[in-house]
Design a protein that fits this description.
By secondary structure, this protein is an alpha/beta fold. 39% of the residues lie in helices and 20% in strands. α1 packs across α15.
């Protein structure tokens, strides 16, 4: 039986769910064996004791450089190894080119290496351009939704991107799906919906980190770069819907206390849209033809697929030469289970690429 070694950095909520899914897979798979050879946090590490064993989590120990120890263990393991980075660390991301140079595959939901410095993005792509080792990051945009894989297929088969447009934040999806609706009798206050989203755990600890559009901006940047457009957060047009007077407030608690003062502002925007038979949605756009890529609060007809979205689902529409009526991907775009699914599916894709056979 073939073995693919897994070295995981960041066994937190998503990382633990990923490990659980591996364990479930191993119970029903008669093909590839996935062996966890190392786990690391920012201060601790555990490494498998032999070439045949998986890690023993009773053996965690402190380390001055846990990531380096994990990478060494992955490099020394017999067979192919994948480093799975479940952190949001820029410092960890900057090590990807070195790992790839060692022949290690990389899978990650970390947006930093693909949305920030173009030089780092180029270095990662250069180190993996031969297709071996492989770097995959499906979960950076839509958790487990097949967004980047669909986009890659569109690009690699020679189709032409006309526009990519989507609701790419589960938080902003929930807020506007509930606030701006086609129900003429709805009288929700914007601050109440934000508070409800926060209580449900949909928002960041400070909801301004969702409302400022930066997370969607990172996803737009990633989509653009995968499509071959050299977008940068520095130049991307990002609409920050946090009212100007609330942007410099020191704490999230004070922000939430003062947000009701601006309910009238959001109500006016919603009423203006409703008067035209439209709803408000916060969208990310990649528009190579018009050069108008960015993040914006936009109005959509009640008949538009974006207007019909429910809950915290994500939706993305690819308009291309071959798909003038957009190809749409929709579903849960956030949460530990679906994010881990996206990571795990990338790991299994690597297993297939390096020549292993996997069967359920």
């Amino acid at each position: 039986m073939s073995v693919l070694n897994i070295a995981l950095i960041g066994p937190g909520l998503v990382g633990r769910e990923f490990l659980r899914q591996i364990a479930q897979h191993q119970k029903r798979s008669s093909g590839i064996q996935l062996r966890v050879v190392a786990l690391a946090t920012s201060k601790r590490v555990v490494v498998a004791g032999s070439s045949e064993a998986s890690v023993d989590e009773t053996q965690w120990r402190d380390s001055s450089d846990p990531v380096s120890e994990l990478v060494s263990a992955a490099s020394a393991a017999s067979g192919e190894s994948v480093v799975v980075d479940c952190t949001a660390s820029d410092a960890v991301a900057r090590q990807y080119p070195n790992w790839l140079a060692k022949g290690l595959h990389v899978v990650t939901p970390n947006k930093k290496p693909f949305a920030s410095d173009l030089a780092l993005f180029d270095a990662i792509k250069s180190a993996s351009k031969s297709g071996r080792p492989v770097v995959l990051h499906e979960a950076t945009v839509g958790a487990g939704l097949p967004i980047l894989s669909t986009l890659s297929d569109i690009v690699e088969t020679g189709d032409e991107i006309v526009k990519i447009e989507g609701i790419l934040s589960g938080t902003l999806s929930y807020i506007f799906n509930n606030y701006s609706t086609t129900d003429a009798g709805a009288t929700h206050k914007f601050s109440d919906i934000v508070n409800e989203a926060k209580e449900r755990g949909y928002t960041e600890p400070d909801p301004r980190d969702d409302l400022n559009g930066m997370d969607v901006g990172r996803k737009v940047t990633i989509l653009g770069r995968v499509a071959g457009i050299r977008l940068s957060l520095d130049t991307l047009s990002i609409e920050n819907i946090v009212p100007e007077p609330l942007r410099a407030i020191e704490t999230a608690e004070e922000f939430m206390r003062k947000l009701p003062e601006f309910d009238a502002h959001f109500a006016a925007l919603n009423a203006a849209a409703a008067a035209k038979g439209k709803v408000l949605r916060c969208v990310g756009v990649v528009d190579p033809a018009e050069g108008a890529s960015g993040v914006r609060l936009a109005e959509y007809d009640a008949s538009h697929p974006f207007a019909a979205l429910k809950g915290s689902d994500n939706i993305i529409a690819f308009t291309t030469r071959r798909f003038p009526n957009p190809l749409i991907v929709q579903g849960a775009g956030a949460g530990a289970e679906v994010t881990a699914f996206g990571i795990f599916s990338d790991v299994l894709k690597i297993a297939k690429r390096v020549g292993y056979a996997s069967s359920a």
